[in-house]
Amino acid sequence: MNWSVMIPMLGFLLIIFFIGIWASRKNAASGDSFIQDYFLGGRELGGFVLAMTMVATYGSASSFLGGPGTAYTMGFGWVLLAMSQVVTGYFVLMILGKKFAILARRYKAITLVDFLKMRYRSTAVVILSAFAIIVFLFSAMAAQWIGGARLVESLTGISYNGALFIFAVSVLVYVTIGGFRAVAVTDAVQGAAMVVGTFVLLVAVIIAGGGIPNIIGDLISENPNLVTPFGNEGNLSKAYVSSFWILVGVGVVGLPQIAVRSMAYKSSAGMHRALIIGTIVTGIIMLNMHLIGVFARPIMPGIEVGDTVIPLISMEVLPPWLAGIVLAAPLAAIMSTVDSLLILVSSTVVKDVYLNYIKPDATIKAVKRASFGVTAVLGIIVYMLALNPPDLLIFLNLFAFGGLEAAFIWPIVMGLYWKYSNKYGAIASMITGITSYIALHFYNEAYGNLLGVHTVALPVLLSFIAFVVFSLVIGRKAHSFEEEWKELKQEALGK
Length: 495
Hints:
By secondary structure, this protein is mainly α. It contains 22 helices and no strands. Helix 3 (47-58) crosses helix 10 (160-208) and helix 4 runs parallel beside helix 14 (268-299). The radius of gyration is 22 Å and the shape is globular. It starts with a helix and ends with a helix.
């Protein structure tokens, strides 16, 4: 074990644990508002923390390990593809923005499913939402567990299973005790680590490769396709690249783990700051990490497992102590995403299923026990799923992204902005999106991408058509938020 690398990493983990302990004390002091604090941080996020928690949650193991690993394999085409992610935070906050946050507060929504439940007043919408979150986010969480384990494995030399155990325990401890507040504040720390770490590593890789012109020349000598937009085998078609933008661009509005952050900011001024900070930071991180993946190819040819490119090149081009500090960036990305996903799935089980349908009169003490217990159990289940990892975890993560977007994008967006949106359209859209996405995923795995587009494109289109048709054909009625607000106030007074 290389202690020169490990000591900075361990120091980083200690900081995270202290933040988790602090957050736990904040939650303990909040009494009856435990649910809101544990799952939404008390809606107190400022602009910087909001931006960094969105960036850190979105910038996952696929961005810091899988993405650069795929860029190492495919070349500059994948870098171009990855840069469509720059607009992620901008689109989410601009499309959801103030209206989503205001309605979430008006509905007293703690989770995305809370919002959908109040907007559509439908048990079926809640059950479908919980099903989609649990199914697809297990894939996303497994990807993060795998990425964390591979990073620890590369650094320590211990077996994959041992590394997986160490990573799982580290995450579970601070997420279970700290909740959303720990997640949000640690995301701010982790986001800063990402920006600094990617800059340092990119400069070191360029120096080790003899400068950018020399690296480009080596890539062209090996395979000219590595420096084109179409991939090393010409497998990145125009149709695929264009449709991929739906998955990692505008479609991110439908990701529950990102959308829920639009409920948690303190003021509109904070949201506007987050728009600017988040867009700049995402652009820096995505460009740097994917360029590192491509530039590493001439320096360290023949790496077989793409997900190990970043830790291997870091230890090759940097002094051990600096590599340890720099590798805190991918560790930060992985931990920040997995903690957010854990909290999201935990809140779905506890808040949206347990409190809504199993034990609505549960005491705060019972809710606390359930929250801690469910978070821990979910982590253990994902640990078991991660014991047999794929070679490139990015595709496991993107599978989860696509499924969630196909399920949620139109119930969220149309529910905010289209007056004829109703529960029938939402139910039809979610069923159509989920089933068509899963069916098309297996078809594309067996026969290649239908029409040459990414798997998510057609399900998003079909779910949109289903939403509009069923909303207009069944139970058509113009929805008024003003009238709904009056009804909610009357209900509250009646209680």
